[in-house]
Amino acid sequence: MTTSTRRRDAVANRQAILDAAAELLRQDPQASIDAIATSAGLTRRAVYGHFPSRDALLAELIERGAAQISAAVGRIRHDDPATEVAMIASALWRSIAEVKLVVQMLVHSPFEKLVGEAIAPVRRALLEAIQRGAADGSFRRDQDPTLTSLLIERTALGTLDVAVARGLDDDEAQRVLARSALGIAGLDWRASRDVVDALAAPTETPTGGVA
Known about the structure:
By secondary structure, the chain is mainly α. The protein has eleven helices and no strands. The chain folds into two domains: 52 residues, Arc Repressor Mutant, subunit A, CATH 1.10.10; 141 residues, Orthogonal Bundle (Tetracycline Repressor, domain 2). About 3% of the residues have low confidence.
């Protein structure tokens, strides 16, 4: 076996470990290294050859997941704050596998700080949209936008869990998540529904938006 072949195999094995771990940990945050190795079609020793500890594997997964989440949200911009919040919520659902892992680790030390730093761009984008909506009167003004943004984040995490547990399909889950976020921001259920329906309409492209 040539050096280049060994290198390709090592890269493929590492990716297989990460993919298997992401899937298993999404279902069971306590999944063992043995279970991850079996799912990846490798031995426990092979896993430890790439990652010196379970925490090292988790840390790389968290960074990978958070980067994908940030990439999904980072380019979203819209002139209408409500549409932007709905777009952010939809993008989060499309990254559900990564979101689930990151969310689980968000409340478990020693990863809380790492996750918080990694998803900072997402939090910043959401807060900026809430601030713009509060400033133009489309969102509630009776509480600090920072609190509104935090409430949306925390409620979104719970909504994700419910959507997964109930087996909602992607379209419905995105709608539920977006409507919930807009409701917390201050829109009534009819207005929230209209924003989400307009965003989902295949014949309409939101002005000023980036999908």
